[in-house]
From TrEMBL:
UniProt xrefs under Pfam families: adh_short_C2 (PF13561)
Signal sequence range: none
The Ketoreductase domain, residue ranges: 34-209
Annotated CDD domains: BKR_SDR_c
NCBIfam families given in the database record: AcAcCoA_reduct (TIGR01829), PRK12824.1 (NF009464), PRK12826.1-2 (NF009466)
Name this protein carries in UniProt: Acetoacetyl-CoA reductase
Gene that specifies this protein: phbB
Skewed-composition ranges (Low complexity): 1-25
């Protein structure tokens, strides 16, 4: 599939509902489904978030940038439309959002989840390692949000959830680039929340701790054992626990929560 335009392949989920639907929300009762985008939405935490929003009754588009095979498998299995573009590229985001909105309607829910790691001690880090992480993990917040915020303001409703990290809260050796980007997300979230609070738009962050994902599963057993030992509840989190938190913040009934960071880390970091 093409990096910049894979309409035929990415728009093949014929079962996707392009109109608002009624369903049951996480908090009970009937609600109206809204159009949602989840970046990095086909793998790991992002996949769980995509499915949680879908199960809450929303019309969800999952955005990805690499691993075409995983994205195709996700789309085929879950019948969720997937779209491919680089969230670190402003023009690609503008074009991609337009494609999504033609497919599922004006976006009222944005989950900025896409992220990468390029770990290394700062004194050995290359400029490419630094800027690639900053642009993808933090620059994408601007690129994606800029593409939907005016429409949200005009319609008087929006939910933006930005995925930070426990390492953006406490720092982590060997991840100055990642920690800086994830900490920057928290400032971005607060400022954007203040700018849009009177427009019916909430902006919040979720900071996951260590969860049972493919990335964590690849860690050496002794390292993983040490990680779990440092978590007060004594286990890794699950992607579903993070996803349900995001789905709650995206719900119409979460309108009095904005500018907040919700830590989902088993007590490993207490703000």
């Amino acid at each position: 599939m093409s990096k910049t335009d894979s309409n035929a392949a990415n728009d093949k989920s014929a079962t996707s509902n392009t109109n608002n639907t009624s369903d049951t929300s996480l908090s009970g009762g009937t609600r109206t489904g809204r159009a949602a985008i989840v970046t990095g939405g086909t793998r790991g935490l992002g996949a769980a978030i995509t499915l949680a929003l879908r199960d809450a009754g929303h019309n969800v588009a999952a955005v990805y940038h690499s691993n075409d095979a995983a994205a195709a498998a996700f789309e085929d299995r879950h019948r969720v439309p997937v779209f491919k573009w680089d969230v670190g590229d402003f023009a690609a985001c503008a074009e991609g959002i337009a494609r999504v909105e033609r497919r599922i309607g004006p976006v009222d829910i944005l989950v900025n989840n896409a992220g990468i790691t390029r770990d290394g001690a700062l004194h050995k880090m290359t400029p490419e390692q630094w800027w690639e992480v900053i642009q993808t993990n933090l620059g994408s917040m601007f690129n994606m949000t800029r593409g939907v915020i005016e429409g949200m303001r005009t319609r008087g409703h929006g939910r933006i959830v930005n995925i930070s990290s426990i390492n953006g809260r406490k720092g982590q050796a060997g991840q100055t680039n990642y920690a800086a980007a994830k900490a920057g997300i928290l400032g971005f979230t607060k400022a954007l929340a203040l700018e849009n609070a009177r427009k019916g738009i909430t902006v919040n962050a979720v900071a996951p701790g260590y969860c049972d994902t493919e990335m964590v599963a690849a860690v050496a057993p002794d390292v993983l054992q040490a990680i779990v030992a440092g978590i007060p509840v004594g286990r890794l989190g699950t992607p579903d626990e993070v996803a349900r938190t995001v789905a709650f913040l995206a719900d119409d009934r979460a309108g009095f929560i904005t500018g907040a960071t919700i830590d989902v880390n088993g007590g490993q970091y207490l703000s």
